[in-house]
Amino acid sequence: MPQHTLSHLRQLEAESIHVIREVVAEFENPVMLYSIGKDSSVMAHLARKAFAPAPLPFPLLHVDTTWKFREMIEFRDRYCAQHGMKLYVRTNEKAVREGINPFDHGSDKYTHAMKTQTLVEALAELRFDAAFGGARRDEEKSRAKERIYSFRDRAAQWDPKNQRPELWNLYNGRIDRQKGESIRVFPLSNWTELDVWLYIHLESIDIVPLYLAAPRPVVQRDGNLIMVDDARMRLLPGETPQMEVVRFRTLGCYPLTGAVRSSARTVPEVIREMLMATTSERQGRVIDHDAEGSMEQKKREGYF
Amino acid sequence: MRLGADDLELIDRDVEGYLERHQRKDLLRFLTAGSVDDGKSTLIGRLLYDTSAVFDDQLAAVERDSRRHGTTGTATDLALLTDGLRAEREQGITIDVAYRFFATSKRKFIIADTPGHEQYTRNMATGASTADLAVILIDARYGVVAQTRRHSFIASLLGIRHLVVAVNKMDLVGWSEATFDAIRDAYTDFAARLDVHDLRFIPMSALRGDNVVTRGDAMPWYRGPTLLEVLEDVHIASDRNLIDLRFPVQLVLRPDLTFRGFAGTVASGVVRVGQEVMALPSGRRAAVAKILGADGEQDEAFASQSVVVCLDREIDVSRGDMLVHPGNLPKLDREVEALVVWMADAPLVEGRTYLLKCGTQSVSAEVTEVQYRFDVNTVHRQDATLVEGRPSLALNEIGRVVFQAARGMLHDAYAKNRRTGCFIVIDRLTNATVGAAMVVDRRPARTEQALRSRDAERRQALARLASRVDATERTKRIGHAPLTVWLTGLPRAGKSTIAVLTEKKLFEAGVLVQVLDGLNLRLGLNRDLGFSADERSEANRRAAETARLANEAGLVVMASFVCPQAADRATVREVVGADRFVEVWVKAPVEVCEERDRALAPDGSGLYARAHRGEIKGFTGVTAAYEEPQAPDLVVETDKLSADAAASAIASLVIARVRTATTR
Fold this sequence. Notes:
The structure holds 2 protein chains of 2 kinds. By secondary structure, chain A is an alpha/beta fold. Chain A has helices spanning about 10-25, 40-50, 70-80, 95, 105-125, 195-205, 265-280, 295-304, and strands at about 30-35, 60-65, 85-90, 130, 150, 180-185, 215-220, 225, 240-245, 260. In chain A, α3 (about 70-80) links the parallel β2 and β3 (about 85-90). In chain A, α1 packs across α2 (about 40-50) and α5 (about 105-125) packs across α8 (about 295-305). By secondary structure, chain B is an alpha+beta fold. Chain B folds into 4 domains: about 5-240, P-loop containing nucleotide triphosphate hydrolases (Rossmann fold, 3-Layer(aba) Sandwich); about 245-325, Elongation Factor Tu (Ef-tu), domain 3 (Beta Barrel), CATH 2.40.30.10; about 330-445, Translation factors (Elongation Factor Tu (Ef-tu), domain 3); about 470-664, Rossmann fold. Chains A and B meet through α1, α2, α6 and α7 of A and α1, α2, α4, β2 and β3 of B.
């Protein structure tokens, strides 16, 4: 007799697809926030599965700060063209004209102007009532309590006192559109970083090559390895780019994203490094792993 | 992730091989119930820490914090690993459940951690709704207290089948076995009032780690598994309902004129290509033409898979409808009776109207009756409190409520179906989720009545179809007559062993024979049945029907069932037919059976050991009587006879019977 059981990855996949379909069934104008990162790649992959053979019934939205890695932008355009996805790209042109950049402005100001503000304006302009995001509960201690449906008022603010209990797989998607209410939806809530990598491997999902080790020009700054991605990178006195074999664990604006030294050139090798790192940590070895990515932090505070 | 030395070796040598093996592991969701005082945060911290789900930097932060405001002296306070919520709690932010994750080589785990005292009922119900297992924490110094009863009641109410009672802080009671035993006995008495299928007790010290992930050396008297061993090994696959097909349609996919598919998640049961299904509430039928799963076309889809189902003809189906098997229908009724956990400050009041979301259906419904509420600490019924003269339910109260929906709602009883037997209650003005409801099985289903009037062919289908091959022809073709050999006796008397040996002997003698085993049936046909007297009788009836089917096909059946009641054995004889029924008593003294059980499971996890500890109720030979057969066709005494000799004796009897019958 067949077992009729699902592996943990297939279970997570089925649950995420359920959530994505539920939103499409109950909302008028959803959008998927697309950051080009590995979580976005997994989320977009799940969305395509959820509606196959029909095309994706909603567009993607990328908030472009103009400081993303070049490879990210190339990947984005190629991915959307290849799968026939409708993509909106929004940039805070006013902030660009004012010369707001990650070098001169504090990361709070930079993030707020380039990401949060841009996103909120784009959602209002295009009248989206539900926005998918790729955030996971395992990213940080305080995210552990987040709902899958996160309710936002007219100003797209999270009202912590007005979140709804979520039982079984029954999601309450009722909002007051007259009042401009909307929701953010996190279909990957129950995935861990390891699940995401395992699934990328299982499904051969395309990811930005920056996640895999390769020789890249980097400078060492405040304990981080920063890649010199274009001529706008301002080098400090004494800094000379060195070619080093590195990869990125998270992707964002290149001047703010630290690389790690690694020899993992394939997805299985990345997974091996992850598994060995946590384990050797328990055995008391010194390991090479960066603290909570600083970009991740910003993404949560403002962007998401 | 927690990895053993062999895992590390494999990852290092052949990571692809490792991934191939380990992306297949399954998922267990569990809930931890208890207050901070019981050591819940410490327990979760201990699990995360000992399974390596904690990174360097997190640990460093906790070590810093431990020195500042930890409660464990110089040791690292693992409770701080999960205490990220304290600040928010102080700011008045609602936290219902925090989810934590860890994995071992066997499973991925999701912990639902429900903090807080005041909102506990609502929080715990939320966490319990998706949990397979609950860990109920008890402080060994205080034993079973009101809170323990409340937690256990909610876990059972929300349909959690596996309870692990963690008797924590054993270090503070001198690792006393007597204390542990007393708590276990007190809890077992109380749990008899709840619907719990699988109950285990573990003495532990989360602070020191004993019996959480590793055994420790402080309690050599405890020979059962550690908490992690239970979490890794508990069998949950059969908790799902794979019998009743329920496919609530989420949305209709219609990319072009050539394709029309119904997208949804299979709530329960299995649907296969080619099968006839019925759409409800329309009652129209069609066959399944195609199933598209996450990996393309598949032959079947089972509970919890998200798929697209295409039918062979156009019938009207939309969101909120359900595809089912025509012979197995859910209830379709405007009146729904349910146990409701109320989650809002504004009370539920008789006469008010709410919106119910049940699967993919959204229906408005009036509360026509609030029958009673529970005292969650004692599980006793009480009169509902009146609001403006009407019965009501306040925040965190649980009560029994009757709803009258604006149109028929498709549903099942929660006890039978955890996906289609529940709904959430939504306030129509604020849109808030204000209640969670579990359907009670009381009223007879009216679905068939409702459908029969428009579906006359159904009645005809109930007449028995006559075969055009008669039994004599069949016997001639096969070379022998059919027979059911019913092996009855105490657990561990040797029934299954003998059944299998006899099967082999008969097969070699040219007899078409099949074993029908009680345990095996419980994995499939009888997986929805528990061990109450009624359910045992139903299991027995189904076994008898199965034996009859096999006999009608011409087979000899070797059936091994405890079947302790003479009345049940009489039923089997009647269903199968007395002329092809042989009763064999596999007889051994209960002491011998117990000794065999101990030898099989020396760690105390054997059936008899668990029955003696009260973990299995109504166990034949310990707490339930075995009614000895009065006139068996054969008795084999397995304390005097080898299994092989017993099998030979039975085989001879069978051959004599089935060959004689042929020539007759």
